[in-house]
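Morning F.,

Quick status update on the modeling queue. The single chain you submitted on Monday has been processed. Sequence for confirmation:
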Amino acid sequence: MQSIYKRILLKVSGEALAGPTHTGISEEMLSNVASDVKTLVDSGVEVAVVVGGGNFWRGRTSPNMDRATADYMGMLATCINALALQDSFERAGLQTRVQTAIEMREIAEPYIRRRALHHLERGYVVIFAAGIGSPFFSTDTCAALRAAEMNADVILFAKNVDGVYDSDPATNPDAKRYKTITHTEVLEKDLKVMDATAASLCRDNKIKIHVFGLAEPDAILRACAGEDIGTLIY
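Structure tokens below.
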């Protein structure tokens, strides 16, 4: 499949990385992501990755915990997933760098924009972990921010649902999936595909978003090729 993009920001949700168990890390999902990313890099596409941590910890579901503490715990969960992705990518033959917004030099580089751009230009896969390093911001916001900073052509949102729906498909069997939708509609309809900060940032910077289910065969490759899967937000 021929990619229509030169540089992408792949946002992998923690829940999608867990696979059908909904918790922990699925070796099969890791292998599938690594295989698709290897194919893209071999074809000349530059790939940056932002990974969530919901398969280990979702701070917002802990109402009795201090929100900042819960969010920092979530950032650490993203680092676990980032290292798992790095290991899987490198076993597939890719060169990688993990950069974290919270300094932990023993396992990753600190986030430095120019260094990240240099890595991408050299064909390395750059994995961004720990969100933006501040509580009260989600990894969706991190994906939007890093996509803007990396001058990415698109954000590929690989989730555990296969697109954007007008209501929650888990509770409403009649929920309808959008094929295309605008950033403004996502905000006005409060569609919950991402948080409002991320949607606003993408709208203001004219960043295209493609939302699709990670479990679909060759989903990342098909999204990069511009196939009609999931939902395109522009």
